[in-house]
Specification:
This protein is an alpha/beta fold and 253 residues long. Helices cover 42% and strands 14% of the residues. The chain has a seven-stranded parallel sheet with strand order 3-2-1-4-5-6-7, with helices on both faces. It binds nicotinamide-adenine-dinucleotide. GO terms for molecular function: oxidoreductase activity.
Length: 253
């Protein structure tokens, strides 16, 4: 028996990295996944990696949308509900990273980061909530260890993840009467296109980053985080609620 047989998942950021690995994992465990991302080709590749449409039947649905735009978020939620009916799991994984030294920070940097990392998950929660079942529904918000640990040069990103973490903790308490769980999952450094983009880090000293992996001497893999998200979202995680789940290999700085 697969843990996600008969479960419907709305997953953002599914075209790459952690979101892609999560889609592949949840599909392998029987879920139907409504996958949202701005990259249509990446979504198609995720479907292919998960086994292809023939094998998956109608269990993988790709929906291209720019989550930085409120109307696109609202219509993605409506499309997901129209397709799935009930949303057992909402997994907000999509995110953006900017590295900007404080002297060069503009409010637009913060607005752009917050639009994807905070406002989109918040609006998706609001839109999908009426369709999340009481007692079994789960919301997983992917935050970051940057929410609570110093990440020099990444103040906007860190602040956005801190906001998403706080939001998740309070929402968990708010939804407790419906027995809907809300769990923020905070990865440490994970090797994905988000962190591999050299342009993002141009001119910034990131040598500290590589020293923070005491467990295996390597950053996390997307699959490490996907496995945790699957656990948290499944009945195995039924007693986890409103608490940050850090998946960072024991990272210490
Ligand atoms: N990689 C890390 O080290 C790390 C660490 C902690 C937290 N995280 C978080 O994990 C999540 C996934 O990151 P990742 O490392 O897999 O990065 P990634 O860049 O590989 O994937 C992010 C996905 O989000 C999508 N996305 C970004 N902006 C979007 C928008 N406006 N509309 C729709 N989709 C959009 C991208 O297209 C991409 O597919 C993010 O929230 C990130 O902040 C990553």
């Amino acid at each position: 028996m697969n843990r996600f047989d008969g479960k419907n998942v709305l997953l953002t950021g599914a075209a790459s990295g952690i979101g892609r690995a999560t889609a592949v994992r949840l599909l392998a465990e029987g879920a139907t996944v409504f996958a949202v991302d701005r990259h249509e080709d990446g979504l198609a590749e995720t479907g292919r990696l998960a086994g292809g449409t023939e094998l998956l039947g109608g269990r993988f649905v790709a929906h291209a949308a720019d989550l930085a735009r409120e109307e696109a978020v609202v219509s993605a939620a409506a499309a997901a509900v129209a397709r799935l009916g009930r949303v057992d799991v909402l997994a907000n994984v999509a995110g953006v990273l900017r590295v900007t030294p404080m002297e060069s920070v503009g409010l637009d940097d913060y607005r752009d980061i917050f639009a994807v990392n905070v406002f989109a998950p918040v609006m998706l929660c609001r839109e999908v909530l009426p369709h999340i079942p009481d007692r079994t529904g789960v919301i997983v918000n992917v935050t970051s260890t940057a929410a609570t640990k110093a990440h020099p040069g990444m103040t906007g990103y860190a602040a956005s993840k801190g906001a998403l973490l706080s939001f998740s903790i309070s929402l968990a308490a708010e939804l407790a009467s419906r027995r809907i769980r809300v769990v923020p999952v905070s990865p440490g450094g994970v090797a994905t296109p988000l962190t591999a983009n050299r342009e993002t880090f141009a001119g910034v000293d990131t040598s500290w980053y590589a020293r923070t992996y005491p467990l295996w001497g390597r950053p996390g893999r997307p699959e490490d985080i996907a496995g945790t998200i699957a656990y948290v979202a499944s009945a195995d995680g039924a007693y986890l609620n409103g608490v940050e789940v850090r998946v960072d290999g024991g990272s210490h700085s």
